[in-house]
Amino acid sequence: MTHILGIESSCDETAAAVIIEGKTIASNVVASQIDLHAQYGGVFPEIASRAHAEAISAVVDQAMSEAGIDYDALDAIAVTRGPGLVGSLLVGINFAKGLALATDKPLLGINHLEGHVYSLWLTEEDEAPQFPLLVLIVSGGHTELLLMRDHGDYERLGGTTDDAAGEAFDKVGRLLNLPFPGGPNIERVASEGNAEAYTFPRAKTDGPFDFSFSGLKTAVMRETTVAPAADRRGTSDSQRKTAMLRSDVSVKDVAASFQHALVDALVDKTAKAAQAYDVSEILIAGGVSANTLLRETMRKATDLPLRYPPLNLCTDNAAMIAAAGHYRFIAGLRTPLDFDARPMWNLNSDTYSE
Ligand code: KG4
Ligand code: ZN
Fold first, then answer.
1. For a 10 Å CB count at each end of the chain, is N or C smaller?
2. Whose CA is nearest to atom 10 of ligand 1?
């Protein structure tokens, strides 16, 4: 039974977890910085790295003590190598390197997106997902549709050509003067709104399995603001984003209609890809997979088994990093101690062997 310590610091969560055999959660500690960043309406990189540096040692200590094991009992240390904010990534990577040296344990550099994929393997009661499968990763930074034929075997079928799904939620949330992050807050107000009140466009895309959300965001802006934002001279960027909501706009209806349009696009392409590649299951992961409308709409669109993580594993955490680490560890892969951060790092079949 492997025991892997996972460490995650790519964005605004400092997290550490101990995972047994790639699926049993012995501990899972997440220190969120959301309150720190809320006042800026988004993640502020400098503040993020400082907060990671302040929190990481205590977070890792807590994960180890909650798991009730010594460093001796660990098989390896898995840490997020990228993609993400470089300053934030380096805090986790340098801490993990120091720990690996001090404890003489192997180190594994993990792709954050691969981590989101492996959040679906943290299921003690259920059988593990069956290959070949389709994974939709929908987070604040990424929207990716992947075909996975085996562990570490990823074929990218498509993804967003502009904004990520979570990013669209966050930008529209800001436009509607909702608190950060936009996703859960849009979902909350949308539950009381009419999703048919506004018809927002479903974007045309180049590839059959690509997504595009910036047109949707612009359409919401046109419907809800006094004048096209770009025409308003003499207003600061933050005023342009927050101060111009038209008084007759129903925030609930806009939120519901926007959510409906975005979810429809995600589900449409995912269902088509599942059919085209004849997969045995569909997996959804990442922060936006917490969205109830997305889960329900996907459920109705396919007869295939559908999995999404429990709510606490949808958003960033280190349990998923340790789970991905388990599969790398048993495949005999190790990352040399002098590895660098990869702020931009795609997930494809090369990723696994790097
Ligand atoms: O995976 P994650 O924690 O971080 C990244 O790796 O980016 O995802 C965060 C994103 C944010 O954009 C947030 O607005 C979105 O996930 N999100 C949601 C919901 N909960 C979080 N979007 C829609 N509905 C939700 N319930
Ligand atoms: Zn993430």
1. N
2. 140
140 lines ligand 1 (CB under 6 A): yes
Integer Cα distance of 145 and 100 in angstroms: 34
Residue 302 neighbours by CB distance under 10 Å: 17
pLDDT digit string, tens, across residues 167-206: 999 999 999 999 999 999 999 999 999 999 999 988 888 8
The domains found in the chain, sorted by start residue, are: 3-122+312-353 (3.30.420.40), 133-223+249-308 (3.30.420.40)
pLDDT digits (tens, 9 = 90+) for 210-229: 999 999 999 999 999 886 55
Q: Which residue(s) pair with 76 in the sheet?
A: 4
Please list, in sequence order, all residues whose beta carbon lies within 8 angstroms of the beta carbon of residue 332, skipping any fewer than 6 positions away.
none
Residue 346 falls in which region: left (phi positive, over 0), alpha (psi -120 to 50) or beta: beta
Q: How far apart are CA 338 and CA 333, in angstroms?
A: 15
At a CB cut-off of 8 Å and minimum separation 6, what does 224 contact?
Answer: 175, 176, 245, 246, 249, 254
Q: How many angstroms separate the CA atoms of 263 and 266, rounded?
A: 5
| Contact 137 CB / ligand 1 (< 6 Å) | no
Q: Which of 68, 115, 84, 65 lies closest to 9, judged by CA?
A: 84
Residue type, 143: T
Q: Is 291 in the pocket of ligand 1 (CB under 6 A)?
A: yes
Residues constituting the chain:
354
Asked if the peptide bond before residue 343 counts as cis, ω within 30 degrees of 0, the response is: no
Q: Which pTM does this prediction carry?
A: 0.93
Say if ligand 1 is within 6 A of residue 283 CB.
Answer: no
3-state secondary structure 238-254: HHHHHCCECCCCCHHHH
